[in-house]
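Section handout 9: paired folding examples.
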Amino acid sequence: MDKTVILLIDFIGHDILAGEYVKNLRYSTLQSILQEPHDKDKNIVVSIGSSCWDPKLKEMKTMATHDKWKWLEIVNHKVDVETIEKQVKEKLNFHMNNTDTRILIGGCNTSGCVLKSKLSSAKYFSKKYNTTILLPMCAEYQAHGINDIEKNMRAFARIFKYAKKEKLDINVAEFDDLMTY
């Protein structure tokens, strides 16, 4: 794929329910992507919902846009794929299409909003685009478990079961996998 949209869905999540390691991993992974030598005209960031009020993400946006990244904030958490495409074209002059654009998704909750609960989730993007849920940029707070490891294991299992049941073509990756796409 020639172009990439990094989609951050409710990235701040439910901060009070998060362990420090998972919180730090998500932001560190995004920082690593933003620091990689990418063609800034072919890679953009779109943050949706609560991501727009996250002070840490705001600071990362400031640094990234200073470094020539294009970044769009969409406050409406009910936004759908078509509206995102339209806003990205109008506000960033970035043309998304299913032949040369891939979607990388991170956010909270992994097995809810990131996977299927929002109109901008992997479920809906995967019907049109090469879509990858980037696991180190996700956190799960809905699943039960005594720690983040148990919660995330359940979330990952839910991704696979749901994608199989719904016959969705959703990729799941860790950061190192990005180099192989």
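Moving on to protein 2 of 2.
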Amino acid sequence: MHGKIGIESNFGKGSNFWFTVAFPAAVQQPQNLELESRRFLLGKKIALVESNQIANFAFVKRIEHFKMMCESTKIPPIAMSTQRIMAKIFSEIQMFTDPEVIFIDHNELRGIDAAVIAEYIKQQVNLQNSALVLMISTKDKINFPPEKLELFNHILFKPFKSAKILGALFKIYNIENDDEN
């Protein structure tokens, strides 16, 4: 590298050290690699199994922002027993129309067991080819049975920000994304 180094000093006022360096011209990258990668996601169908109404709404809005189609389970009332909640979720899942990816929230507080839901989905003829994404907190993952992780194509840790959701989708669809790092 070519350049210059210098010092400017004034008695009682201190010194300034400086340098200049010549760098090669930058290679032009596409303006937004994420935007280029998102084009592949346009119109893709995904589904969401989420027990929290606010999280459900936020997640669906993010997916719609990516111009993808999203089906989601209706939120069961909090007063329902775990068994009834799971039965309602199962009946909702049967209504999904061939999503390519299904995001499943694991919520120990509400008794929503993502592994049980994943096993159920794997038995449904119209959903067997769907990629499954486990949505879980790092705290809940500690108690999650390690052998059940094999049911999922990807794990997404809370909080579910847009970049994390896109990262999961890019991995599932084998899309390279340099912006992820």
